[in-house]
Structures are given as structure tokens and as C-alpha cells.
Amino acid sequence: MQVFVRDNNIDQALRALKKKLQREGIFREMKARTAYEKPSEKRAREKAEAIRRARKLARKQAQREGLLPAAKKKVIGRAR
């Protein structure tokens, strides 16, 4: 993973790095590895994640077919 520092702006580079790490799921994995997870808890978590993924896929499919209204796009504006 690479993050380029432009104009010696370390703060901007750190924000970009954190965003990339978040997107890759590194923080979630580090948190999960800090403590032991019982096999039953692991199964329950993985099952819940699978259900969440399936629901998301079904929701996107329904939106593509026109059965549900399209998701609202997030507008990120900068106030200056």
C-alpha cells in the first residue's frame, strides 16, 4: 500500500492512509485479533456477516430491477 506525500503535507497523507486502511478492513481485523474469539462467537459473527452481505446484494439487485427506489447519493460538501 502506498500513499504519496505532496507538498510536504503529512496530514493529508495520513488521512489518505487511514482511509485506505479503513477500506481494506485492516482496523477491523486488528481489533478482532486483540482478543481470543470463541469458536461459537466466530460462527455467529460470520453468519451475521453473511446475512448482511446477502441482504445488501438483494437490495442492490432489487434497485437495479426497479423494485426499490435508488439509494440516495451522499453529498460531501466543504464549508469554507
From TrEMBL:
<keyword id="KW-0687">Ribonucleoprotein</keyword>
<feature type="compositionally biased region" description="Basic residues">
    <location>
        <begin position="71"/>
        <end position="80"/>
    </location>
</feature>
<protein>
    <recommendedName>
        <fullName>Small ribosomal subunit protein bS21</fullName>
    </recommendedName>
</protein>
<dbReference type="InterPro" id="IPR001911">
    <property type="entry name" value="Ribosomal_bS21"/>
</dbReference>
<feature type="region of interest" description="Disordered">
    <location>
        <begin position="51"/>
        <end position="80"/>
    </location>
</feature>
<dbReference type="InterPro" id="IPR018278">
    <property type="entry name" value="Ribosomal_bS21_CS"/>
</dbReference>
<dbReference type="Pfam" id="PF01165">
    <property type="entry name" value="Ribosomal_S21"/>
</dbReference>
<comment type="similarity">
    <text>Belongs to the bacterial ribosomal protein bS21 family.</text>
</comment>
<keyword id="KW-0689">Ribosomal protein</keyword>
<dbReference type="GO" id="GO:0006412">
    <property type="term" value="P:translation"/>
</dbReference>
<dbReference type="GO" id="GO:0003735">
    <property type="term" value="F:structural constituent of ribosome"/>
</dbReference>
<dbReference type="GO" id="GO:0005840">
    <property type="term" value="C:ribosome"/>
</dbReference>
<dbReference type="GO" id="GO:1990904">
    <property type="term" value="C:ribonucleoprotein complex"/>
</dbReference>
<dbReference type="InterPro" id="IPR038380">
    <property type="entry name" value="Ribosomal_bS21_sf"/>
</dbReference>
